[in-house]
Amino acid sequence: MPCRVVQTVSRLETPQALTQPRYLFVVSRRHPELYELLVERFEGDRNVEVILDRRSTGSPTEHATERRRTVTAATDLSIRSHVIITRD
């Protein structure tokens, strides 16, 4: 399945921003093997960070549901194995 960039975050010129990875892979909890593969593949690459989706699987509150509707990455993780977020 081809990768799709879902969001671009503006990068500020601060010391913290300069040390942040450029690519953030968020992997669905349903794909721990993909998470392990990506962690191994990008180990030592300071431009890439790989994280496992930390959201709980419990039923969301109405407020949380509304907030998530606006976040494409959260929606995509419910149907995709991972999303990639880039920082400019």
Keywords:
88 residues, four-stranded mixed sheet, 24% strand
Strand runs, count: 4
* Helicity, as a percent range: 25-40%
Strand order of the largest sheet: 1-4-2-3
**Run of helices and strands:** EHEHEHHE
Q: Rough shape?
A: globular
User: In terms of per-residue confidence, which ranges show pLDDT below 50 for 5 or more consecutive residues?
Assistant: none
List the helices and strands and how they pair.
Blueprint (H helix, E strand, L loop, with lengths): L4 E5 L5 H5 L3 E5 L4 H10 L6 E5 L9 H8 L2 H8 L2 E6 L1
Parallel strand pairs: 1-4, 2-3
Antiparallel strand pairs: 2-4
Commentary on this structure:
The structure is a single chain. The chain has 88 residues and is of the alpha/beta class. The chain has one domain (5-87). It is built from four helices and four strands. It has a four-stranded mixed beta sheet. Strand 2, helix 2 and strand 3 (48-52) form a beta-alpha-beta unit. The model has no long low-confidence stretch (mean pLDDT 74).
